[in-house]
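dude i think i finally got it to work??
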Amino acid sequence: MNHSRLPVLFISHGSPMLVFEPGQTGPALRAMGDQLRAQGGIRALLVMSPHWMSAGVEVMSAARPATWHDFGGFPEPLYRLQYPAAGAPGIAQQVIDTLQAAGIPAQADPARPYDHGAWMPLLHMLPQADLPVLQVSLPAYFEPAQLYAMGQALAGLREQGVLIVASGSMTHNLREFFGGRPVWDAPASPYVQEFSSWVEQALLAQDRERLFDYRQQAPHAVRAHPTDEHYLPLYFALGAAGWGQPGAAQPEYFNREVMYSYLAMDAISFA
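look at this
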């Protein structure tokens, strides 16, 4: 089957309560899912989530991954939710082979379930759960340039019907989030907006040097991400999209909401 080249997505998944407090983000994800379905050509999704970190690269290879409720202290109905999508063992092996050919060691994990960084936003974006989904881990010690190279190695999957989705959060300071317990529609903290705007400007400028050095150059970088595992999947998306390369398309934001004052829910499509 011939497939046109699919976009690459970076989405912010926010709190597990996104299911019940969707704000603008839930409808924005649903609209993107509807748009992708209308375009057609998707045969599977490959998702990177910060809730699967590993020493090296691991790839979900189960035929029927379970739904993992990898959080605590939330309302009981949240734990009854399921995302019963099939896995994609054949594509998992292709991902492993492709990464290894690029000099990036990778191995299969046949027992890994879907974590909420994957299934929770997909409940909004593709609620039918009728497309196969597999995850690739976020290597714990990869720098932005290494994650970019990892995405770059897998870019060819876009022409084979695989939608690449990097799930994370544009800002993610949980200490402030839990310290203040703001409501979901509380006003955005100014530093959250300043950091997110800096990233957007760097993305639009296709400025790899500046964006790869975000920890030193972005305003409030350490406050926005005391640990940066929720931000780093962006670089995987950028590599898969060919961002920063000659002729690369400009990123298109399809969501900019800030939830709970501290969680920037930016969602970006890279054609």
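The chain has a mean pLDDT of 95.
im so relieved honestly
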